[in-house]
Specification:
This protein has about 150 residues and is an alpha+beta fold. The protein is built from five helices and four strands. The strands form two sheets. Strands 1-2 form a two-stranded antiparallel sheet.
Length: about 150
Amino acid sequence: MKVRDFMVRDVISASPESTVKEVMSIFVEKKIGGVPILKKDGSLSGMITDGDILRAIKPLDRRIHDYFSFMTYIAVADRDAHLSEIINMEIIKIAKTHGIVTVRPEDEMETVISLLAKHHFKKLPVINGAGRVVGVISRGDVIRNIQQTIVESL
């Protein structure tokens, strides 16, 4: 079975200029955990996942300078300023942009299973010969395919 037989063709994506806040809204609204970042011509610029966003907004290290000062207030103010800075940042600044693993529509399902298992990816972009994203394939897509084609026949 080929990737083209079970990939999602209606790709939910972000642009490099999208903010972290906008991408978080896409994740929540669409109930997904990652999207490809596409240039205007449809070529792949990066990948972003919910884990990337969590790592970017993790709390700042707290330092205890004086127990009797307003450090608690300052820590909250620092946290809020940090969070505001991160959520308004362009998504491409925290996205994976190098070494992105992709598959092609003509690749076999076994290739996808191997890549997803080896690298612990949630999804892979599917690119055509011109380097444009034409689909995505997720672990869920593969599990559904295995269940429908193999498990139900047992």
